[in-house]
Amino acid sequence: MERIPHLLLVNSVLDDRVQLRRLLEPLNLHITEVASGLEAIETLQRATVDLVVTAIAIGEFDSWRLARFIRSGICRGGRTLPIIIVTRIWCERITEITARDFGINHLLAFEDRHRLPALVQSCLKSPTEGLGRRRVLVVEDHEDNARLVKKILQPRFDVELAGDGKSGLKAWQEGRHDLVLLDIMLPGMSGTTVLDRIMKINPGQPVVIMTAHGTMDVAKNLMVSGAADFVTKPFRADELRTVCELATRREDYIVSNAQVADRMDRLQQLRNLLGNIIDSMPSVLVGVDQHGFVTLWNQGAEQLSGITAAAAQGRPLDEVWPDFSEMDEVRLSLAEGDIRKRSTVSYQHGGKNCYCDITIYPLFESDVVGAVIRLDDVTERVLMEERIVQSEKMVSMGQLAAGMAHEVNNPLAGVLQNIQVVRNRLSEHLEANRAAAEAADLDMTSLSHYLQSRDVNTLLDAVMESGKRVVQLIENMLSFSRREDSSRISSDLAGLIDKSVELAASNFDLQRKFDFRFVEIQREYDKGLPLINCNPVQIQQVILNLLMNGAHAMEEKLQKLRATTSGVVDYQPQFVLRTRYANQTATIEIEDNGLGMNEETQRRVFEPFFTTKKVGDGTGLGLSICYFIVTKNHRGTMRVDSVPNVRTKFSLDLPASAPCG
C-alpha cells in the first residue's frame, strides 16, 4: 500500500492554519497541525515527517531555530527535510537572505498562499529543491587561479567558471548570478568591457574585480564604474571569502534598506491618512491605555474640552478632562473588556444644555490594552424629538379643547351669567327692581331681610364659586399641553390612568357622534404596586393616546356592526385597565374590544408616520411617540398583542427606578 506523505503545519494563528489546511486538503496528505515551534519539535521527535510548512513567528522557538534543528539531521525526517515558510509580515530581502542561510526550501507571502499546493508537490518530488546557495561566476583566464578560487568558495557558493570575457558575459546573461568575480586582464574581451556591459544591463549586479598589485588605479576606476569591491592577487582564502560575502550582502543591504524605507513611508502616509480621518470625524474620539492615560485626542476632543492634543497626550484622562463624567464606565470597560454605552447624557457647553451618546470600546491584543471613547453630539436629535412629542401632544389637546369648549364652556358661561343676573335683580338698590316690587305689592326691604336670613345670597355666591372652580379645572386640564421639563417624580400609576380616563371622557367626536362615556371601564389594579419613578405628564400622554386610539377602534367596530345588523347591535365597547408589579418592573395594560389588528399592522404600528386612518384623520406619529417616551425616555418596553375583530392589548413595562434619559 502506498504511503501517504506526512505534512507538519506549524502556525500560531488558528484562522491562518484553517485557511492553509483547506488549500492542502485536496493533495491527499496526512496533515498534523501544531501552534508552536516547541510542539513541532515534539512531533518531529516521535514521527516521520515528509514536509514542514511553517510561519516565522511560532512562539519562542521560532522558525529559524526549527530549521536549525531540522538541518542538524537529528530528527526522523533527516537534514534534507523540505521546509516552506508562509508568512504574513516580512521584509522580503532580509527574510530571503535569512531563509537561504538556514536552508529553507521556499519562502511564500501569505497573500500568495494559493501557490502553496504546487510548492508542496514540488518539494515532495525533489526534497532538495529550493532557495539553494548563492551562485558565483568566476571569469578568470588562468586555469590554476580559477580552480583555486572555486576551491575556496565551494563550501559557501555554487561556483561556475569562464575562461575569457566573451564566454563570461554570455554565461552571466544566461544565468544572472548572485556575484561575478571578474579578472581585469582577459583575452578577447577585457574585464573593463565586460563590467561596462553588465552595468548597462543591471547596474545592481555585484561584481568583484580581481587585480594584480600593479593595477590598483585601474581597480579604483572600475569600482567607480560600478564594481562592488576588489581583491588583489595573490589573495588569501579568508580575504576572498570575506570580500565575496560583503559583495553579495551589499546589494541585499541596499535593497532591504529601500524596502524598509518604502514601508516606513507608506506607514507614515497611512498614519497621516488615519489621523486626517479621525480629526475630520464629527465625533469626539479619545483613546486611553489600560491605566487611563491619553493616547489619542482628536480635533473634536480639542474643541469640546479646550485642550490641545499635545497637552493631553500621555496624561491621565481624569486629570486632563475633569468635566468628563464617565470615568467609572471607562474603568469598567478596561476591567471587564465590555463595550459600554450611555445614551442622551447631558452636559454643559458654551453655557447651554447639550446631550451626547457615549460609547466606550475596549482595545484588545492578548488582553485589554486600552479603550477608545466616542462622544456623539445628539443635542439636535433630542430637541427634535421633544418638538415632535410636543407637536403630537398639541394635536391631541386640540381635540380635547374642542370637546371641552362645546360641552363645558358654553353651558358654564350661561350659568355664571344668569347667576350674576339673579344677584342683580335681587338687589334693592336698582330702580327697576324697586319698580317691579311696587307693582307686585312687594316690600324690597322685607325681601332683602328674607334673603339674608335664608342665606340665599350666600348660596348664590357658592354657586358662583363652584363655577369658578370648574373654570379652574378646565385651565388645569389645558396646562397639560404646555411644555414640560424631563424631571421625574414618584408617581401613582393607577392615579395617572384614572386621570387619563377623565380627560378622555371629556372628549367626543362631534362628526361621528361618538361619546367616550359610552365605553364600559373595567379596572384590575395591583394593590401592591409601589410608586414608580417617571415623568407623569409623559406617561399620562401615552395612556391618553392609547385610550383615544382604542375608543376610535371600538367606535368603528360599532358603526360596522350597525351597518350590517340594521341598527340592532349587541355590542358593548369596553376597556380593561390593568397594573401589575414583578421583578422591579411595573406593567400597565390597556385592552379594548375594538376592531383589532392583523399581523402586518402589529409589526409596523410603532413606525413613524404609519397609520391605518383615512387621510386627514391622523399623522401616524402618535404610537411612535408613545414608543419613544416609554423605551427611550424611561428605558422601558412597549408591545402590542391583538386579535382581529376581538381585542387589542398594549403593554407598557416601566422600571421601578428608571435612570434619567
Architecture overview:
The chain is α/β, with parallel strands linked by helices and 661 residues long. Helices cover 47% and strands 21% of the residues. The protein contains 22 helices and 24 strands. The strands form 6 sheets. The protein has a 5-stranded parallel sheet, sandwiched between helices. The protein has a 5-stranded parallel sheet with strand order 7-6-8-9-10, sandwiched between helices. Helix 4 packs antiparallel against helix 10. The chain starts with 5 loop residues before the first strand and ends in a 6-residue tail after the last strand. 27% of the residues are buried. About 1% of the residues have low confidence.
Oligomer status: single chain
Structural class: alpha/beta
Q: Estimate percent helicity.
A: 40-55%
Distance between the termini: 74 Å
Strand order of the largest sheet: 2-1-3-4-5
What number is the mean pLDDT?
82
Number of strands: 24
Quick gist of this model?
Helix content is 47%, strand content 21%.
Defining traits:
single chain, 661 residues, alpha/beta, 5-stranded parallel sheet, 22 helices, 24 strands
